[in-house]
Design a protein that fits this description.
The structure is a single chain. The protein is an alpha/beta fold. The protein has a domain of about 220 residues: TIM Barrel, CATH 3.20.20. It contains eleven helices and twelve strands. The strands form two sheets. Strands 1, 2, 3, 4, 5, 8, 9, 10, 11 and 12 form a ten-stranded mixed sheet that branches. The protein has a two-stranded antiparallel ribbon with strand order 6-7. Helix 3 links the parallel strand 4 and strand 5. The chain binds ligand PBG. The site of ligand PBG has 12 residues, from helix 6.
């Protein structure tokens, strides 16, 4: 069928036709909102490079969760800023650690909120790397035990799902085993399966105070040039027992999301990261773009590429926009 018999504009002539033939939708069900939790009382510190994102103290969590739920957002992912850091990241699995306390607070005061935790050591180590350092290298196998202990401590505190973001080899299997041996067979693992060594994490490192103090993360996170390796990483995590595969960052890696969607049948999550958020906020603040429209177009693009789930600092803004 060609013009003039076929006119694509027929189905675009009004919003009713447009929504009838719309292929991709975005709803608050798809969104996970990241929260940064820190020590202290009554704290709401805005992250300077992430306008609208706050580091909050535990006492502020319930209100935050209730606000999210009133917008239809039922998922948060927690990142913690410990009081003290050390070489081995002990704060990550401390019984009264910041995340363990945050989970308990949420489960007490906003029990309907689904709580996922980021499992990593970089916020808890004084050197800022995601693992244990041996001979100036991030040592893979000795890190696994600490990660498993951390994930288990989150489950014990009441977390609904754990999300390892460290990129050590074999961590999904190690965490799965630790959870299963301790009666947490029902706790899913959302694996940061395909996580690139990206400059888009810049603002997050300010928010979570987790910048490496020497070197960078290219020895464990993926090379942005690689596609085939993404399949290998994802396959390994599937075999090790991942329930959700994540790609991170999102917008510069839509091709990876799309290819993984075609190849795997597990749910795919995409992390729309701090730098991606900051760029839109900065351009909007300058009046160069319409921030809300660019936000919605971006989130829709991530869904169109194949993501079922989106982790985004825009979750509340997007949910509000969707209600309008
Ligand atoms: C921890 C972690 C990072 C992010 C999520 N978990 C930082 C990093 O790997 O350096 C980045 C999230 C963002 O930029 O929004 N390893």
């Amino acid at each position: 069928m060609v013009f003039p018999e076929y006119r694509p504009r027929r189905m675009r002539q009004n919003e009713i036709f447009r929504s009838m033939v719309r292929e991709i939708t975005l709803s608050a069900d798809h969104l996970i909102y990241p929260l940064f939790v820190q020590h202290g009382k009554n704290i709401r510190d805005e992250v300077s490079s992430m306008p609208g994102v706050f580091r909050i103290s535990v006492d502020q969590l319930a209100n935050e969760a209730k606000e999210c739920m009133s917008l239809g957002i039922n998922n948060v992912i927690l990142f913690g800023l410990p009081e003290k850091k050390d070489a081995v990241g002990s704060g990550a699995h401390a019984r009264d650690g910041i995340i363990q306390r945050a989970i308990k607070e949420l489960k007490n005061k906003a029990p309907e909120m689904n709580v996922t935790t980021d499992v990593c050591l970089c916020e808890y180590t004084d050197h800022g790397h995601c693992g244990i350092i041996i001979d100036k290298q991030v040592d893979n196998d000795s890190t696994l035990e600490v990660l498993a202990k951390t994930a288990l401590s989150h489950a014990e505190a009441g977390a609904d799902m754990v999300a390892p973001s460290d990129m050590m080899d074999g961590r999904v299997a190690e965490i799965r085993a630790a959870l299963d041996e301790n009666n947490f067979a029902n706790i899913p693992i959302m694996s940061y399966a395909v996580k690139y060594a990206s400059a888009f994490y810049g603002p997050f490192r300010e928010a979570a105070d987790g910048a490496p103090q020497f070197g960078d993360r290219r020895g464990y996170q993926m090379d942005p040039a690689n596609i085939r390796e993404a399949f290998r990483e994802a396959s390994l995590d599937v075999e090790e027992g991942a329930d959700i595969l994540m790609v991170k960052p999102a917008v510069a890696y839509l091709d990876i999301i799309s290819k993984l969607r075609d190849e795997f049948d597990l749910p795919i999550a995409a992390y729309h990261v701090s730098g991606e958020y900051a760029m839109i906020k900065a351009a909007a603040a300058n009046g160069w773009i319409d921030g809300d429209k660019v936000m919605m177009e971006t989130l829709l693009a991530i869904r169109r590429a194949g993501a079922d789930i989106i982790l985004t600092y825009f979750a509340k803004d997007a949910a509000r926009y969707l209600r309008k």
